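Entry
Fold in token form

___
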Amino acid sequence: MTRDIQPYLATIPKTVIDTAKALKTYPKLEKALEEHATSFGGDMSEAARTELEKRLRPILTDAGVGKKVVLEIADACLAVRVTPLSSAADAVEGKSDNEMRSSASSSRNIDTTSSAAASTSATSNGNADSTPKKPKKTDRPTKPSTKNSTTTTTSADDLSSAVSSNLHMDNADPKVRLISALSQESRFHLDCTDTGSLEIDLKSVTLTLAGRDLLSDAHLRLKASTHYGLVGRNGTGKSTLLTAIGEKLIPGLPRTLKILYVNQLTNTRAAEDDLHASVLSVVIRSDAERSRAVDETKLLSRVLEDGEEEKIRDVVLGLKLERARERLREARKLAVKWSGARGLGARKDLLVTEKEFELTQYQASHPPSISDGGEGWSFQAGKLLLESQALLDEVDAVSTEARAQKILHGLGFSNERIKAPYSSLSGGWRSRASLASALLQPAHILLLDEPVNYLDLPAVLFVQQFVSSIPHTVVTVSHDREFLDSVSSSLIILRNEKLTYFDGNLTTYERESRQTRLHKLRQQEVLAKKKAAVQKSIADAVKSAKKSGDDNKMRMVKSRQKKLDERWGLEVNSKGHRFKLNRDLGGYHLTSRGGVEVEEGEERVRFSFADPEELRFPGNLVHLDEVRVRYEGQREDVIRGARLTIGPGERVGIVGPNGHGKTTLMNAIVGKLTPTKGTVERHPRASIGIYMQHTLELHSTQQTTALSHFMEKFPDAGDSNARSFLGQLGLKGRTADTIPLTGLSGGQLVRLGLAEVMWTSPDLVILDEVTTHLDSDTIDALIDALQHYAGAVLLVSHDRYAVKRIIELAPDPAADDDEVAEEEVEEDGEMDVRKAAKEPGRVYLLQDGTLNKLEGGMDQYTHSVMKRLDAA
């Protein structure tokens, strides 16, 4: 190939290229792109677009590409060739913020290619003079010429990554590159991205991840100032949808909206500025817009106070150059991302932005004696200072530090940890700092993906209160039902590649959905019985008419049968009013009445664990008497005089803040730690199974499959039994025997950990934060299975819903009394004696190493924490 066409190929989906290779049409594709590059180069005219489309259409159509996608690929190819920047532009983009604000001497010391910034792209005929024009000696800057200039185009890597560029952080999630999003607004409503509306209303949204459809023709609607809960089973695409919104990958999202996605706020940018920066400093500086305004205000105030005109001029030009560079980056992203008429407009805007950037860059390297418009440099600096100060007033910069400290304290940071270097934090504490950054920054839409993972109850309740008070739009994904219910006023349900909406929280939605389904099933039953009675009456009448030879009676019977066939159905509409055909059943239908339509829900998740064998002689499974545990080298006990007894079949819950000894106590119970004082007695015949919180981390680094890992641990299980047991926990087919553990989701790894614990049917099951990473349906299935399990359960969790249901045996809040009564009857019609005979368990609080029983259960602990938060 005489021309490099890799930038073109990077814009074509991999599946299309693979198909072309399989059909042996890939050489034709390369030839078509090479001919276009040779004939048109960087030309982005309508003629070039038409010609490129004509070359690509037959090849791409053979590869299964539709007309719309062919046009989008052609637009993307044109965008690749339409971003010619000088090497000076690349050099400027590589500089840090401080370098952009440097003095005149540093501005003039840009390498020699920067001096050629007085020119723009070469003309399409390719005749370019390699010698840049010498600027005229005049008081005003010489405008860069559009002829006889030398520039270098943007690299292929920059162009290919522009589609998935992250708007909020430097290190984008690798998954972003695999996301493809379309919407109806990709070719229509050209002004939708410049609207001042704070709402999102996009139709025909399609979302794919690595070729797999997650949304198909869905309606994405986010109202202003509404708090949404986003629910759906593991793997349906909740996190991918939040990523697509946060990255603004979906065409039609308003550019004026500021969207923050908590997983994107890794504080990398702020931490890299100063390796020894404190946690507080990093959290405050995570808001790039505010930090830039603060830096500009300090810089402008300092040079204005000094009063040296040359320094003021250099600072003004440096800030203008930096702002021009930001506008250029944004224009490049839009030129590649958008298609159709709006994409054509974006590419035209890009050309204008490039020229403005090159002019600003030239002025920075060749400072004029007077500013644009004839105003003095001090006046220009004053205007920039007022803009920066207005932004700081808008974000309430004065109170930022106080608000940041309050949020960090609420998330469990001590004063010492707040002042400590950010680099000293562990991964868990860095996640909390990222959450603090998200809560601190103002945004029109805040996206929270599992914000309370691994947080203890005090931190969960603080986030719950804080999120509930946010006046803007919030979308939350969380496995903690009570947290999600508290922060959500509306619900988005992701199911079957569609988005549906409900006014209310998850519990209300499930209760109403169950009631509606139950009502419709009863309606069906009543109608079926009534229809059967009418049909029997008709059959008897037919028999009687035939026997008597009564033709009038036979005609009457036929008329009744016709009415039954055509008009049988609901006699009232959904509002309880009398059914009217023209109002309640518009359009063409085979009958004149509406029927009872029962929506087919998702298949219910069910877990089943075999009960342990009855012990040969009675006795407590575990008994702790005045147990104290102290680690070597420490002066104080981690566990102080703990007393706990767990009998067969009992339910015990342990709650408390992080770092107060829960893991230490569990290790003492199973024998991994020897008490410093006191005794731990275990039943000699009892077996104990334990699921630890770090199990997921251990599994996530292994290359073996779930089935191989399980068989290695339980070689006597047999392939068939192992597959069956893993399958009923949701690890089926290729997920179990083909995909390595490194490729499984967090929820799937939790299921594998549960399989390891429950396979041997232990007499005592110890579960540490087992609900983390599971969706609500799976949590309900686990709760139901543990409620039926005959063995004892020790649950360590911050999940209020799980503790209440598993330990205190609280009823399902989403089920009404009739449904609870029906669920207590097994499929064979017999009452579940084991479940009915169980007594509610006990809940203990472990705080500061002391274990105390909570007489009021989980609610008592919740109320005490809320009291402290309200008093703070």
Q: What stands out?
A: The first strand starts at residue 84 and ends at 85.
